[in-house]
Amino acid sequence: xxxxxxxxxxxxxxxxxxxxxxxxxxxxxxxxxxxxxxxxxxxxxxxxxxxxxxxxxxxxxxxxxxxxxxxxxxxxxxxxxxxxxxxxxxxxxxxxxxxxxxxxxxxxxxxxxxxxxxxxxxxxxxxxxxxxxxxxxxxxxxxxxxxxxxxxxxxxxxxxxxxxxxxxxxxxxxxxxxxxxxxxxxxxxxxxxxxxxxxxxxxxxxxxxxxxxxxxxxxxxxxxxxxxxxxxxxxxxxxxxxxxxxxxxxxxxxxxxxxxxxxxxxxxxxxxxxxxxxxxxxxxxxxxxxxxxxxxxxxxxxxxxxxxxxxxxxxxxxxxxxxxxxxxxxxxxxxxxxxxxxxxxxxxxxxxxxxxxxxxxxxxxxxxxxxxxxxxxxxxxxxxxxxxxxxxxxxxxxxx
Length: 400
Description:
InterPro entries: PhoD-like_sf. With 400 residues, the chain is an alpha+beta fold. It has a domain at 180-372 and 385-399. The protein contains 11 helices and 12 strands. The chain has helices at 103-106, 144-156, 180-193, 229-238, 259-270, 290-305, 307-314, 336-343, 346-367, 369-379, 391-399, and strands at 10-19, 24-30, 35-42, 47-53, 59-65, 68-75, 86-94, 100-102, 119-121, 129-132, 165-168, 319-321. The longest helix has 22 residues, at 346-367. The radius of gyration is 21 Å and the shape is globular.
């Protein structure tokens, strides 16, 4: 295990989530548990709406690995932010030695030209929305979120009106359609950060850690399902991804299974840090799939190279997110027969549940923190510094 001090302090984010005159929420994943000091201000207007260390009511932290902590900072300004104002912000990360570091110090390339701090606009009326969906890292097209970055750069330069918000209406991750190089990066991210593994029932492996030791881990994941008649039905329904014009012709061959895999996917989808640590080797890839791996790697290298722009963009505009099917799996809840096949199978239900836990922590939570607080209160006790306890009960709460 790599020593904790060698990890970037911020692994993903910061992402501006809900932002209005009365409340600002910021999401990020850090490699340690930190205290946070936040400041919301406008230097041109000599306005300071908030400047204080955040208390336990304003910071919610969920540990998902030895070196991975998901944080939602919910800041209530001491006075309402003037609508239409550009809000600059600073977040100080304070460690156990009382050493503080600014978000701009620990996140490289977070600022646009001429900025001293990241910023966003608080809007009263919605006039300009940036909208996107279906962001697949290994698709043979440019990353649409890099266009958001260029739009924000133009807005700061006064060339266009700043967007009021970014609406991402589904498929922020593809849990069911994963490139081989991405799965290699996921494995290394789990190992490096010590993302928590889980016991599995009804599978050919007993623990999620064993998936990566199995001969069918890469490009053959449907074979990891239990070999029973009931599971055969589940396979046909759960993994029957539609054929689409993409690099991979069978969507489910690298389908994510564990909660650790889902969290690693979110980190790798939004931030550049872990891509600079992992090494994309085909050493563990079966020879028959190595040409596919090489083809996908071209797209993945291009995708990861743009993630500094993506992180900068998501730090400069309020972002709202909702799932679509691929955030969980293709054909999710499409028919009654699908539901019966999946939710009556312990292993398949866990796969869906893990994707939903990841959605809650990495997407849904920041849309409206106050509304999600009862869910957070009900679920946070399942997380400890050792891993998730009563995992199936947690899945049931998310499904409910």
